[in-house]
Amino acid sequence: MGNLKKEREKHMLQKLNKSSFVETESKSRVKLHKSGKSWVKTTLASFGLIQLFKGSQAEERISEGDVDFVVSKNQLLKGALGIGAVLGGTSLATTAFAAETTSTLPVTSETGVTSEGTDSTVLVASTTTSNTTSVLDQSSASQSVSSSVSMSQSLLNSQAAQSTSEQESLSLSQSTSQSSASQTTNSANVTPTASDSTPVSGTTAVSASTASSTSLAPKVNMLSSRTSLAATGKVNNDLVTVTSSYLKDEVNNDGIVYPLRGETIEYYSKFTVDNAATAGDQFTMTYSPYATPSDFDMANWAPIDITDNSGEVIATGVYDATTKTVTYTFTDYVDKYQNVVASLDAYSYIDRSKVPNATTLTMTYSMGGETTSKVETVKYESPYVQGTSSIESVINELDTTKHTVEQIFYVNPMQYNAYSTYFNVYGYVIEPLTGTMVQQGSNTINSSSIIEVYNAGSGTSLPRSMNITDFSKFTKINPIITYGSDSASVYLGDISNVYVIKVVSSYDPNSTYDIVQSGTMSSYNSLGNYSIVESDNNIVVNSDVSGGTGTEVTYSVGDYVWFDTNKDGLQMNGENPAANVLVTLTYSDGTTKSVYTDASGHYQFNGLFDKETYTISFTPPAGYVLTTSNTGSNDAIDSDGSSVTVTIKAANDMTIDAG
């Protein structure tokens, strides 16, 4: 499906964060262009030609100073879009009054090297004070695009989402998938000959696949009594054969992944569907045990139905969080079409609960029981430090049912001797030196907010993932908390230990402002020098930006195959229709699907889009070849050849014939 279609169906979820930014995206279905100072990227997550997320798209704006991520309020985290954690911050001191900045990263482009058939592009950019993660919307595409919830901290943002599927999350995780039928021959008009033709398609990489047609009875007719089958409840992964696959970390594909920067792991697999598959049959896709489709709000994450470009549902998915497995059930789509070829581009995040600290591990994913692995080194970020003050934060959970957001702060993670220490939290982004508001938020800090303060002790080694759900190992304290206007101040006094502070605030889902929350640590050293550091996290929720509420018009192509008795390439009286001839539609990205002509020799493909280009090819039955093509000037009655490329021009095209 083209960029126009993607534009019409996009939903976006954005995160803002005050620190450096790195963004990645890597498929041919990514559109990147410059607008003023900003690079704008649009992504359609899809299963091959099968749109896993029904055309959802995420948009990231990479600009100087901040990064925006947007997702539909109405669809927030209601699907395969993952959400990611973004952490950012600045540090200021009276002796310097200079905001601490991050390093600049070069723009690079790399291709995957884990297996054959990879073709991806990575974009890396940076800013001095802003960090974000983009998100895909489940209602149309997932943190990215399968899209997943991963919070990006400091420099990097990936996404997308971020999967050919419809995802909703706060960090761009994209799952891309497509369905297609393999092309088999290059001839299209039918005339007797002494030779037999057996169509075969095969590809190599992870495994090879051969599809052959031994009967020309239309599959839709042969299986008409089975097209309404219910799910069998049994998985048969033998119906899916992986022909190529790879794994890559999305920023530099360097074997290093930064979870708090929102960096994703991309799992790509291309696979064929056996023609024996019928409605109700099932197959599985499994994530690595160290990965998660979304960093938080997994209760609202679910895979979206796999559809093709015309909107027909190919398979529906159910996610099992215990095994991290998606079980897909075929619909009667596989009863109507043969030689289906699909590709899944699934984006996921490091499961911060399973990987609490920096380490090196093997990530293993599978499609249809066939595994793909890659060794990855996981690295986490360092705190923001100035003088005796240090801080870092991450959004640990987002509850879209209760409309609450949970933020975790590490205060004094450097465990310096800090005097007259204050921790302040705000329902907006604050400029720490002047105390002025930089950005208003839709959430509110007041006496109804939950602020829990824990003394984590001296020499404590906290998880660098900042994923804390069990606070029982810390000492809960009850410091003096003073509430202000959309803010709260916690006096910690003279400290040398690290403190873990959990803040849960409510947000207004109908507000025009973004979800944003920031915190500061201020203190004095033994010489009386003052320092302050700030960390903020921002989640942006916007309405749909598709610009319309109507249904997009689609078109059809097709028509007639006949036995050209006199071999003149023209339809004449007395010449009979050719039933059961295989006709294949190839989309612009190379994915395909096939049908057989009916008893009257006719065929038709529906759900095609204006200005999109398609290829129609014909496979003659054994003992026949195609006759003369493009004879005369009447395109309605001539034979058009073995392969015809057609561009839709706001009308159906029912003139593509073969004799």
Please tell me about this protein's structure.
Mean pLDDT is 70; it is low at 1-81, 90-231 and 540-551. The chain has three helices and 42 strands. It starts with a helix and ends in a 12-residue tail after the last strand. The strands form nine sheets. Strands 1, 6, 7, 8, 25, 31, 32, 34 and 35 form a nine-stranded mixed beta sheet that branches. Strands 12-21-20-14-18-17-16 form a seven-stranded mixed beta sheet, with no helix packed on it. It has 659 residues and is mainly β. It is elongated, with a radius of gyration of 28 Å. This is Putative flagellar protein FliS.
Short descriptors:
single chain; 659 residues; mainly beta; Immunoglobulin-like; 3 domains; 9-stranded mixed β-sheet; 7-stranded mixed β-sheet; 3 helices; 42 strands; 2% helix; Putative flagellar protein FliS; SDR_Ig; cell wall; KxYKxGKxW; peptidoglycan-anchor
* Tally of DSSP helical segments: 3
Shape: elongated
Percent helix:
under 10%
Give the percentage of residues in beta strands: 35-45%
User: What is the first-to-last residue Cα distance?
Assistant: 30 Å
How many domains in all?
3
| Highest-level CATH class of the largest domain | Mainly Beta
Alpha-beta content class: mainly beta
Overall mean confidence score, pLDDT = 70
Low-confidence stretches: 1-81, 90-231, 540-551
- The CATH topology label of the largest domain is Immunoglobulin-like
Largest sheet: 9 strands, mixed
Number of strands: 42
| Cα-based radius of gyration, to the nearest Å | 28 Å
CATH architecture of the largest domain: Sandwich
